[in-house]
Amino acid sequence: MNISKVAKTTIRPSEALISQLPYEGMVVIDNAGKVVLLKKGERSRVVLNAEEVYDLSRRKPQSIMTHNHPSGGPLSPEDIYFAFKTKLREVRAVSPDNTVYLMEMPKKLNPNDYYKGIKESLRFAKILEKAKTKGLMKLEKDYTTFYRFMTMKLKHIIPGLKFRTLI
């Protein structure tokens, strides 16, 4: 992993705490392991105000955001969008069984790569919403298939982008 030891000592305990919450919780840390944002969310999302998004997007791309998915499951297109929009170094989602799904940005990204990441994650969010509306995304395996396709496509578009699962 491409984060400091200090960050690792902050992120893992944070994930252990939020993994069991019945609502989404978010923790953002900088590369030194300092918590820069702690946010309580709703059942299936965390809402940030414009000032919080702006503050995160102005940081060096070394911040790491972790949050929980109370119902389990990997990163959503919205999680990926948020990572590109705020120029995070890494975005993570922890499930109740402490499985961690993460996306790590390449060491160097140009502005066009951020744009492509934002554009593609929004496109996948729309596809997913249509599939849910039409009843095509009923089972966990349906989303797993969608997630694999989405991550494969994003890795192809943005070389060096990494998706991993930590069990």
Query: How many individual helices?
Result: 5
The span between the termini is: 15 Å
Order of helices and strands: HEEHEHEEHHE
- Poorly predicted regions are none
What structural class do you assign from the helix and strand content?
alpha+beta
* Helical amount: 40-55%
How many beta strands in the DSSP annotation?
Answer: 6
Strand count, sense and barrel status of the largest sheet are: 6 strands, mixed
What number of structural domains do the residues give? Answer: 1
Describe this structure in words.
The protein has helices at about 5-20, 50-55, 75-85, 110-135, 140-155; strands at about 25-30, 35-40, 65-70, 90-95, 100-105, 160-165. About 45% of the residues lie in helices and about 20% in strands. With about 170 residues, the protein is α+β, with helices and mostly antiparallel strands. Helix 3 runs antiparallel to helix 4 and helix 4 (about 110-135) packs antiparallel against helix 5 (about 140-155). The chain has one domain (about 5-165). The protein has a six-stranded mixed beta sheet, with helices on both faces. The protein starts with a helix and ends with a strand. The model has no long low-confidence stretch (mean pLDDT about 85).
Question: Would you kindly provide a brief summary of this structure?
Answer:
The chain is an alpha+beta fold. It is 43% helix and 19% strand. The protein has one domain.
